Amino acid sequence: MLKRTIGMTAAGAALVMAAVAGCGSNAQPIQVNLAASEVLSQAALKTAEVTSYTVDAVVNVSHPQEGAGKIQGRMLYQSKPELAADLTLDTVQMAGKNVPGGVRAVLQGDAVYVKVQALNDFLGNTKPWLKASLNEMGKSGEVNQYLNQVQQFDLGNMTKLVTASQDVKSVGTESVNGEDATHYSGTFPVEAAVQQVPAEDQEQVRKGLAELKDVKFDLWVAADGLPRKLALNGSKEGATLDASLFFKGYNEPVNIQAPPADQVSEAPKNTTN
Question: CATH top-level class for 2-266?
Answer without folding.
Answer: mainly beta
